[in-house]
Every structure is written in C-alpha cells, then in structure tokens.
Amino acid sequence: MRDLFHSLLSSQQVGRSAGLLATLAEEAKQVGCEETEVIVANGIGFLSQAYEATAGLIGNTIVALASHRTVREQVRADPSLFRSVIKEVLRYDPPIQNTRRFLAQDGRVANQEMKEGDVVLVVLAAANRDPLANPNPEQFDIFRKDRHIFTFGAGPHICPGETLATMIASAGVEQLTASGVDLEQLARTVIYRSSVNARIALLATKEDA
Ligand code: HEM
Question: Is residue 9 part of a domain?
C-alpha cells in the first residue's frame, strides 16, 4: 500500500491535473509539512477510515430497513427521509463502536488512578444509548427530536468525515433501494466482519446463500 501511494503521489505531482493525494501534499506543504512519508501515511489513513466505516453505515442501514417495515414504506413514499434513517442508524447501530484515548500524564479519570500511556476505551455506541442523551434509546425512531450522536467522537480528534460519509451512505442506500433489491432477503443472513472497533454487516445475496 505504501509503495502504491508513493508512486501515485509522484505520478500526480508530475501530471497536469492534481489528484487528491497531490492536493493533500499541497495543503500539507502550506502548513509546513513536506515529508512524503507523512503525506502517504495520512493518505492511506483517509482511504481506510473513509471506506470501512462508510461501508458499515450502508450495511447497517440495510439491516435497519429490512427489520422495520414501516420505515421502509415511509422512505419509499418519501425518499428525502433516507437521511433521517441514516442519522438514526448512526445513533442506534453505529458502524464504529469505540475510540481510544491515551493518558499524556499520570492522573485520575472518573475517580480511577491512571498512569501515563494508559488507555481509555471510549464506547461511543453505549453513549448513544444513554437515556439522558437520547430518551427511549432502545427505540429506532427516524423522527427523533434533538438526537445526540457520539459516533464520530468528540474534541480535537473528532472525525472530519461526518458530512461526506452521510452523503455517500444516503446516496448508496437510496440507489440500492431504487434498483429493486429485496432488502429483507439481503439482510436475512447477516454476519459481522470481525473487528475491534467496527460493526460492519456482511450481507448475502440469494446467489451467495
Ligand atoms: C460512518 C462513517 C464514519 C464513522 C462512524 C467515523 C468515525 C470516526 C471516529 C469514531 C473517529 C475517532 C474520533 C475520536 O477519537 O474522537 C474518527 C476519526 C477520523 N475519521 Fe472518521 N468516521 C467515518 C467516516 C470517515 C470519512 C468518510 C473520513 C474521511 C473522508 C474519515 C476520516 C477520519 C479521520 C482522518 C479521523 C482522525 C481524526 C483525528 O485523529 O484527528 N472518517 N472517525
């Protein structure tokens, strides 16, 4: 992957039209970073972060539509509701379940003595189901008022991809539904890819079964 990205970057830099990677390098240069290795690492990071979680969001939305007939009928009648479905999936069945924080120095966290370098596993998916943040959290409700979503993290390292991921997933799911795919059949046998932080549904078509 590194070799591929290195050669992609050099070919984009000599080419006439700047690709995404060359644009990233250009932006990095403007803030004082010219190390190719760093640009390449960040390019790979963008690619994998964007791909996995967004694929998970599409799959988990299919599962939600398959298991909620009323919602399925509502979005068929009014496709503008797809975005609300995606938002509720991000809360109810998020494709990324946790993130981590590492202690910069010894200290106390939630009344617990911790040492520099210790890890805090922040279970974002559980926070989404906190009744203080979202009343009746176990209810899948696309019309939920004041929805609080913790799925993209928080603070200085909050995910920068929320808008993009939501747009891609809405368009993907809308297109799939419009193509006449039988969602219930598609989500009949759902298994999940093994992962320490992601919940990515693997859906089987009739042919796969
Ligand atoms: C449904 C889709 C996505 C979910 C659920 C998701 C979730 C997350 C989470 C939980 C974090 C860690 C935040 C924290 O620790 O506070 C993160 C970081 C990040 N995400 Fe996403 N992400 C998604 C899509 C994307 C997309 C489409 C992109 C890029 C276009 C992206 C780029 C990144 C990057 C670069 C970071 C690191 C930010 C930093 O450390 O400063 N993500 N994401």
Answer: no
Domain around 48: 35-203
User: What is the domain count for the chain?
Assistant: 1
49 CA distance to ligand 1 centroid (A)? 6
CATH of the domain at 95: 1.10.630.10
Instruction: Indicate the helix (H) or strand (E) that contains 77.
Output: helix 69-77
Q: Is residue 72 part of a domain?
A: yes
Domain assignment present for residue 27? The answer is no
C-beta atoms surrounding 26 within 10 Å:
12
Q: Whose CA is nearest to atom 36 of ligand 1?
A: 159
* Rounded average pLDDT per 10-residue block, the chain, 209 residues: 93 78 92 94 89 94 96 94 96 97 96 97 98 98 98 93 94 92 87 93 71
Distance 18 CA to ligand 1 centre (A): 24
142 occurs within a structural domain: yes
- Counting Cβ atoms within 10 Å, is residue 44 exposed (0-12), middle (13-18) or buried (19+)? middle
Residue nearest to atom 11 of ligand 1 (CA): 159
Please choose from 42, 46, 47, 49 the residue to mutate so as to test ligand 1's pocket, defined by most ligand atoms within 8 A of CB. 49
Ligand 1 centre and the CA of 158: distance in Å?
A: 7
| Ligand 1, CB cutoff 6 Å, lining residues | 45-46, 49-50, 53-54, 57, 94-96, 99, 124, 151-155, 157-161, 164-165
